[in-house]
Amino acid sequence: MSRTARDNRDRARPKPVERIELNEKHPGLRLVLAAAFLLIGGASLAYGVSQLFTPQSDWVTIEAGSDQGITCASEFEFLYHLGGGELSPAAEQKAVSAAYTRLCRNAFQVFHNQMEEEGVNNLYAINRHPNEELAVDGALYEALAAVERSGNRALYLGPVYERYGGVFSCWDDVQLADFDPRLSPEVAREYREYAAFANDPQAVRVELLGEGRVRLFVSREYLEFARREGVECFIDFEWMRNAFIIDYLARELAAQGYTSGVLVSYDGFVRCLDGSGEGYSLSVYDRSGEDVRAVALMSYQGPMSIAALRDYPVNAMDEARFYRLRTGEIRTPYVDIADGVARNAVSGLTGYSADKGCGEILLEMMPVYIADTLQEDALEALVRDGIDFLYCEDEVIHASQDGAVFSHIDEGYSVG
Fold first, then answer.
1. Strand residues in 232-325 grouped as ranges (E)
2. What residues contact residue 243 under an 8 Å CB cut-off, 6+ apart?
3. Please, is 29 exposed, middle or buried when counting C-beta atoms within 10 Å of its C-beta (0-12, 13-18, 19+)?
4. Model-level pTM?
5. What is the per-residue pLDDT for 57?
């Protein structure tokens, strides 16, 4: 069964969508957010204009080279402040770029689920060698271990992700019935069958064997079902992938001493590595109908991990993750492990923590966000686990953090 949705990895670097609007009463906010390489995700960062955009600024965008092959760098921005070490700024930028290139190349290879990489046991290899012991890269092993620790089984919805991805390749509503369980009872039944296997550890599970070795256990019943249905993909991080990749990039960059920077993915994940006390601002977005706009800035200091889940795109690359029907309904990638149907409790929910990575934040947020309604007790559980949150509803910015500081609040909005 081949996925028909477009693969984002080969796309150009993301650009801002023009429909994001900013209140004219806040020209400073407009200036900050006008930088194309900052408007990259629902959790995008805004910096002080005087720091980042003056001729004397030492902030640069670190580019990944192409000499090592295809990388995942097109899905990320790496903003870096030069001048913190013994190297000249030019030499430092070259060194950081070289390290970043190697990491992005490795991440692309090991998290890939659509092609074989020679000499690499990536997700593609794991899926095509069920019940075999394989040695995998530490980045992939750590991501699989994080999922195992969480108890979250969304990883096992590989067959649903592969099929449901066709929704985002449709250009007309009449095509959706082939992929959308909300429009087709037959597709809904099919997804429920996949979800039943995904929820059963006796049917499918990743066994972590230590020392970087794993085995994808798949029961005989599930293997027979998969052969009949043409299923080759049992596990996939799918829309969750960049949360784990950005953690890997941040972890390895920090280990090499490159902490004067910020990593941002196009789909809403952020790792601020900077522990210097420098101030940063989180752009708070909201959607009303088809209108998506930044409605406030929230101040914070790094290090910080941020994960934003939302039912709307905020940049050109992001458009490929959503589909809006003529009725105004929106199809999102957030598939529920319960039945294979995508749902979200609120338009957008952002979680952040100084102590946890994006992957861990995401795994804890998913059952809160992928639901029919937003439950207060579930939000409180996030805070108890060390994850603060914010979301907008009815022009009120709800924030869990005591003393959270907001600025450039859009007209009509308040902090609740």
1. 261-265, 269-272, 279-288, 291-301, 304-310, 323-324
2. 265, 269, 307, 357, 358, 359, 361, 362
3. buried
4. 0.88
5. 60
